[in-house]
């Protein structure tokens, strides 16, 4: 572990503690400490995190606080990004890992410049207070979120940001318990392996993709509230009409598995919820889990018809989404069209 020369302050380069490889193209995990301490409190985690070809850099906050340092979001973001721009290959994958005030700063960085990040670990902190960011701001960026059970940041992150969010509750009073550090290490290991095999998740663009199975060929925004008080329609019966679909009961009450015969060909493993069985959809009473092409997955997230699977881009394909079940007959056509797109993805060769 080394600490380069320099001092904290917005007019100078940050003090940085390092661990791991020094290769300028290796994935970089940037650790951001809580208030009143320094970079030393975060670099101590590095030996407990994935040891592979990865670089760890713990950055000291630029604002003095007591005997330590902290962050000032408005002024520290450009200062931090200037440092990052000089850190090596601009195409390297960068994952932020923040604790407490450092997690708030990490969330602010992710919301300010989402295209820069391959993931984020937010421990006992999240987006700064204020109006929530727009829906879909973090589409395609996996997040590990740890909170103490009274945290409100998870509402935006899980339901509206578009990010695949793994949530871990921690009743440890805001301390970094060993269990949580272990879970972070496992999540980072899987995310880094996904990056090695597949590269970074493609981010959403401004195009409005065509949905062949959806009425009108385009998704509109899902209404926040259901207009109809009638019982929800039978989505399962509608999906059974898709070509070549087999259906079976699942382990949970009301769960149904929809699959295709992979012996007849079809799409790549990345198009399936369960590649070994040919499962392309898991239907539950209030949701359905499918895998979509990235452009369609992101459109469904942006329009509010789905949330990202918590491990999309980590342990499961980046296009894995959890679609909300239809609440009325009009929504049945839309949701059935979304699942039909997943069926097409799974049944069509590359």
Give helix % range: 25-40%
- The total domain count is 2
State which percent range the strand residues make up.
15-25%
Please give the CATH architecture of the largest domain.
3-Layer(aba) Sandwich
Indicate the CATH class of the largest domain: Alpha Beta
Major sheet strand order: 1-3-2-6-7-8-9
Number of helices: 8
Instruction: Find the structural class using helix and strand composition.
Output: alpha/beta
Instruction: List low-confidence stretches.
Output: 1-8
Largest sheet: 7 strands, mixed
Over all CA atoms, what is the radius of gyration? 22 Å
Overall pLDDT metric: 88
Instruction: Name the overall outline.
Output: elongated
Name given to the CATH homologous superfamily of the largest domain: Alpha/Beta hydrolase fold, catalytic domain
Number of strands: 15
- From N to C, what is the helix and strand string? EEHEEEHEHEEHEHHEEEEHEEH
Terminal Cα span:
46 Å
CATH topology of the largest domain: Rossmann fold
């Amino acid at each position: 572990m080394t600490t380069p020369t320099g001092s904290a302050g917005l007019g100078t380069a940050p003090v940085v503690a390092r661990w791991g490889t020094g290769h300028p193209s290796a994935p970089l995990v940037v650790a951001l400490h809580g208030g009143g301490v320094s970079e030393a409190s975060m670099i101590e985690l590095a030996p407990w995190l994935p040891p592979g070809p990865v670089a760890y850099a713990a950055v000291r906050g630029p604002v003095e606080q007591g005997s330590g340092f902290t962050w000032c979001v408005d002024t520290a973001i450009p200062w931090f990004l200037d440092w990052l721009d000089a850190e090596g290959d601009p195409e390297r994958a960068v994952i932020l890992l923040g604790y407490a005030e450092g997690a708030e700063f990490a969330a602010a960085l992710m919301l300010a410049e989402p295209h820069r990040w391959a993931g984020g670990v937010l421990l006992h902190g999240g987006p700064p207070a204020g109006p929530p960011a727009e829906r879909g701001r973090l589409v395609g960026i996996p997040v590990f979120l740890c909170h103490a059970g009274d945290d409100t940041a998870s509402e935006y992150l899980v339901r509206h940001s578009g990010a695949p969010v793994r949530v871990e509750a921690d009743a440890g009073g805001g301390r970094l318990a060993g269990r949580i550090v272990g879970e972070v290490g496992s999540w980072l290991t899987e995310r880094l392996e996904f990056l090695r095999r597949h590269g970074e998740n493609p981010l959403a663009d401004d195009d409005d993709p065509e949905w062949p199975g959806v009425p009108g060929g385009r998704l509109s925004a899902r209404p926040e509230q259901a207009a109809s008080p009638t019982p929800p329609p039978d989505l399962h019966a509608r999906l059974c009409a898709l070509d070549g679909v087999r259906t079976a009961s699942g382990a949970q009450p009301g769960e149904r598995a929809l699959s295709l015969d992979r012996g007849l060909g079809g799409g790549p493993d990345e198009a399936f919820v369960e590649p070994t069985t040919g499962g392309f959809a898991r239907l539950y009473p209030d949701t359905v889990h499918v895998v979509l092409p990235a452009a369609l997955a992101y459109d469904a997230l942006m329009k509010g018809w789905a949330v990202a699977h918590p491990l999309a881009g980590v342990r499961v394909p980046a296009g894995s989404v959890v679609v909300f079940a239809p609440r009325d007959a009009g929504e049945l056509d839309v949701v059935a069209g979304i699942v039909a797109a997943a069926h097409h993805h799974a049944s069509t060769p590359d």
